[in-house]
Amino acid sequence: IRPIYANEVAPPGGERIEVPSEGEFGVRNPRTLLDPKLPSQKEVDEHNLSHLPYRNWCPCCVAGKGKAAPHFRQTRTDGLPELHCDYCFLSTEGSPLATVLVAKEKNTKMTLSTVFPMKGASVEFPVRRIMQFLKELGLEGADIILKSDQENSILDVLNTVASRRSAGSKVEALDEDDKGSIETAPQGRSIHESSPVGSSGSNGFIERGIQSVEGQTQTITFAFESHTGAKTPSDHNIVPWIGEYVGVLLNRYSVGADGKTGYERLKGKVASLPGLECCERAHWRSNVLAKDRQNK
Fold first, then answer.
1. Radius of gyration for the chain, computed over Cα atoms and rounded to the nearest angstrom
2. Dihedral sign, CA of 103, 108, 109, 114?
3. What is the pLDDT of residues 6-26, one digit of tens each?
4. Which of 79, 54, 49 is nearest to 64 (CA)?
5. Who contacts 183 (Cβ-Cβ below 8 Å, separation ≥6)?
6. pTM of structure
7. Distances (CA, A) of 109 to 28, 151, 246, 247, 274
8. How far is residue 17's CA from residue 55's CA, in Å, rounded to a whole number?
C-alpha cells in the first residue's frame, strides 16, 4: 500500500484521485542565538583568575552574571489595541494590604488604577471596572489583546472579562444609586497573551505603568498626610478614592515623548478638568434643584 499523490493517475480500472495540496508562500526563520566559541586552555586559565570580563563560554560567569535574552520591541502588524494588566500593592505597618489593579492601553497610554479588597475574579468589581475602562477607551466593540503574566488571579479576571465580552450578559451596576443590572451587548474578540514565567522584561510596558501609579499614589498620600498631620493606613476609606484619582491625573497631566497626554491621544483635545489639590476644601453650588437632590 502506498499513497496516491496529487494529479497522479490511478491504475487501470481505477478512478483518478485529486488530492488537494497546500501551497507555501514564504519562510519564517527562527531568531538564532549567539554561539559561544570555545577558547584555548590558556585563555580559560587566564580568565579563571578574575572572571573578567564576562564570557558566555564560562559556566561560572553564566551562573553568576548571566542575563535573560534581550526583549526586542515589536510592532503589531494586525493593528489590534493591547491592554496590559497587572497588580501592585499598598501597605502600611499594622494594616492589611490594599490590592491595586493597574491596566494600561498601548496606543493611547491611558491608565486605569483601581483599589479593591483582594485579587482574582471572585470579587466582581475588577471585572466590571475593566469593562467600564474599555468603554471609556472606545474599545467596547473592538477586537483587543489582553496581556498579562501567568499569575492565576490576573488570568481569572481577564478570562472573565473575555467571556463577558464574547456574549451579552447582565452586569450589576457600579453605583449604589443605580438599581438592577446593566445589559451588555456582545462585543469584539478578546485574545489573551501571557508573558513567560519569570520574565519580568516581557512586562516592561505595564511595569513602567505600575511604577508611575505607585509613585503618584505615594506622592498624593504624602500630600494628604501633610494636611491632616496623621498617617493614612492602607485600609483607610480615602485610599480607594486616591487610587482612582491617580489614574485621572496620569491620563490628563502626564506628558509623553510625543508632547501629548493619554487623554489628548484618545480625545484629540486638552483636558479641561479643574485643578484642585487632593482633598482640598472647595465651596460650590449645586445646579440641581433642591427638590431633586435627595441628599446628593
1. 28
2. negative
3. 555 555 555 665 656 666 667
4. 54
5. 168, 170
6. 0.68
7. 31, 23, 14, 11, 22
8. 59
